[in-house]
Structure formats: C-alpha cells, structure tokens
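Our preliminary data section would be incomplete without showing what the modeling component actually yields. Below, a chain of 164 amino acids is followed by its predicted structure, encoded as tokens that our downstream tools consume directly.
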Amino acid sequence: MRLSLPKQLSRFVLSPGSIVLIDIFLGVLGIEVFLDVVNFALGQKADFKYAIEGVSGLATMFVGYGVVVESRADLMRIGGLYPALDSDYQHRIDGLCHDYGLLFLVVALLLEVSEQLLLLPNDFVNTAGFERGTCVVLSALFFILLVLLVRHSLGMGWLALRRR
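Predicted structure:
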C-alpha cells in the first residue's frame, strides 16, 4: 500500500521508534534539570532561578508530550493511518501510549503547580525559606518522570519484540 507524503510523515512521527527517540531526548534533558534541582536542594548550587526555569521549561514539554502520546490513536485516525494500518499490535501501542501519556501529563502538571507555588508573590503564599524543600519535591517528581520514560521506552521495545 502506497501512502501519501503527509501520511508517511504521520506514520514516521507516530511510530514506536520515533516515540522512543523522543523519550530518550526528553530523558537526557530531564536528567540535566533533575541534577540542577537536586544540587540546589542539597545546597551545592546557589542559582535557584536557573533551576526553576529548567523545571518550568521541561514540565511544559512533558505536558505537551503527554497529550500527544496519550492521543496517539486519535492522531493515527486523523492522519488517515487508521483503518489502513489498524492492527492488534497498533492497538497495544496505542494503549501503552495512552496510559503513559496520561501519567506524563499528571506528573508534569504536579511539577508545574509546585514550581508556580514558589513563584507566587509571598503575599499570596509565603514560600520564603521553603525553596530547598520544594526542590526536594521537584526532584522526586522528576525522578518519577524519568522512571516513567524508561518504562515507556522498554514497553515499546517489548511490544516490538513480541510482534516478531
């Protein structure tokens, strides 16, 4: 079956291999931000603003990524790839993407809320002196995101191996 260029592009972007590559890219960025936040929480780094900007940027990326990954089945349909490429294998990938996409979204939103609490003026929520403690929470949430990325990638690989 010959697919049009837009469908080929959709198929490439939504393929398990591309999704795993994005997982790896976000994982590398996540490790960098995680280390910055941990170093701040441990008192080894003094630039709080730098760490928080990293948290904000990456959390926003994870929110977007979570929405896209969670919606893989719908994007395959909108891109015209379903029903032509519809199979049990694709449905298993869609299910895995839906579950992990939702988890990425929830944890990233918790990161955003935690980060925003620190940025609110102290008149609303007095967070003065709680920066390091909040960075411990942010570190834990980032660790959870990194574990989810690894599990998502391994799950995609496992499905690909079982397909053969």
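The chain has a mean pLDDT of 88. Residues 5-163 form one domain. Preliminary results of this kind motivate Aim 1 of the renewal.
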